[in-house]
Amino acid sequence: MTRFSGYEVAVRAEATLGEGPTWDGAGHRLLWIDILGARLHTYDPVSGHRTVRTLDQHIGAVKPRTGGGLVLNLRDGVAVLDPDGAFHWLHHEPVPGRRANDAAVAPDGSLWAGTMRYDEAPGGGTLSRLTPDGTHTTVLDDVAVSNGTGWSPDGRLMYYVDSPTRRVDVFDHHDGHIENRRTLVEIEDGAGFPDGLTVDADGCVWVALWDGGAVRRYTPDGELDRVITLPTPRVTACAFGGPDLTDLYITTARVGLTAPHPLAGSLLVVPGAGKGPQQPAFTG
Fold first, then answer.
1. Dist. CA 261–CA 153, nearest whole Å
2. How far from 90 is each of 102, 129, 232, CA to CA, in Å?
3. Which of 13, 40, 68, 183 makes an SS bond possible with 83, Cβ 3.0 to 4.6 Å?
């Protein structure tokens, strides 16, 4: 197992709950969000150009669409932004006390969107699959904090985190259906809680550790083989990006910290950390 630091600051920020880094290959930019700040960020690592858009409600995730524009996992449901900025709901389902959380695009171009209660009550969250025509199917309905979701390079396995369980679980995946849930790894006491994840081109799973100040890489057999240590404890998610998909971008949070590190809430990057696969865009 290799332990290293080697991070750089991509964007110095004070996001309350930075989350959801996603490489937009067509737009040559990184997308990321501040959930509780209701802000959508973009960052071009070549030019350094940044944008920030404040939304009307909390946002759990943002992903690119194949035809341009974005799909948003919002407090009250899933919506799309067209390239001209027009907004419309794809699935509108407001539930008092519940908000959106992490989401991911499956190999078939569907969106798998998670929810959770603000009080993190067990069973208050869900994981749902949305197809481009807006068909909504609840896949898991007994979730506390729906978080990292990702697929193996061949699409046959789906990895998933419900953070309070302290586990990264794996399912068999076929044609939008999952079965045979089992544990890939359980995070030990004192090491934090698994949050967002990404899967690299070798099929290894990179997991951000909330209150763990680290990102860990696990092999498909569940063996820990790499740890990236970071200066702030609330590490939320990670994703490969950059022109050659070799840079690991990492989001962090300030929420709940009485004396946050100066980089808490910033977007960090570890250049040359590995190699990510091309991520599919939402086909809706």
1. 36
2. 17, 12, 36
3. 68
Helix (H, G, I), strand (E, B) or coil at 163: helix
Q: What is the pLDDT of residue 29?
A: 98
* Residue 189 among the catalytic residues: no
Q: Which residue has the tokens 């799909």?
A: 71
Whole-Å CA distances, 42 to 63, 91, 146? 11, 24, 24
Give the residue from 277, 255, 247 showing the smallest Cα distance to 17: 255
What is the structure's pLDDT at 2? 72
d(CA 238, CA 249): 5
Give me the catalytic one of 34, 102, 169, 195: 195
As a whole number of angstroms, the distance between CA 68 and CA 83 comes to 6
Dihedral Cα 17, 11, 20, 159, nearest 10 deg: -110
**Which pTM does this prediction carry?**
0.97
pLDDT in tens, 107-145: 999 999 999 999 999 999 999 999 999 899 999 999 999
Q: 4: pLDDT confidence band, cut at 50, 70 and 90? A: low
Residues 146/132, Cβ–Cβ less than 8 Å: no
Task: Return the amino acid letter for 106.
Answer: A
CA 253, CA 187: separation in Å to the nearest integer? 20
- Euclidean distance between CA atoms 174 and 149, whole angstroms: 15
Identity of the amino acid at 281: A
> How far apart, in whole angstroms, are the C-alpha atoms of residue 230 and residue 36?
22
Per-residue model confidence as pLDDT tens digits over 58-109 = 999 999 999 999 999 999 999 999 999 899 999 999 999 999 999 999 999 9
Q: Which of 100, 103, 101, 97 is nearest to 118 (CA)?
A: 97
